[in-house]
Design goal:
This protein has 67 residues and is an alpha+beta fold. It is built from one helix and five strands. It is globular and about 35 Å long.
Length: 67
C-alpha cells in the first residue's frame, strides 16, 4: 500500500536527519530536534503529526522528494 510505503520512507528519512525542519511557503514551522512527531500510514493516508508547546499540526504526506 502506498501510504504505508510513504510512512516507512518518511520515518527512515527523519530518523537519519535529526536536525530536519518542517517548513511551508518558506516559513519554518517546526524544528524536529525541538518537537515531538508521529507518523501513520493507515486508512490509505500517510499522516505526519507534529506538536510542541507553541503549536501542533497534522499534514497529509502525498510524496517525498529527496534533495
Amino acid at each position: 500500500m502506498e501510504s504505508l510505503r510513504l510512512a516507512r520512507e518518511l520515518e527512515d528519512l527523519l530518523a537519519a536527519s535529526p536536525r530536519a525542519c518542517v517548513s511551508e511557503e518558506g516559513e519554518t514551522l517546526f524544528d524536529l530536534c525541538a518537537v515531538r512527531y508521529s507518523i501513520s500510514g493507515e486508512n490509505g493516508k500517510c499522516l505526519l503529526h507534529l506538536w510542541s508547546q507553541e503549536r501542533n499540526a497534522v499534514r497529509r504526506v502525498v510524496d517525498i522528494e529527496h534533495k
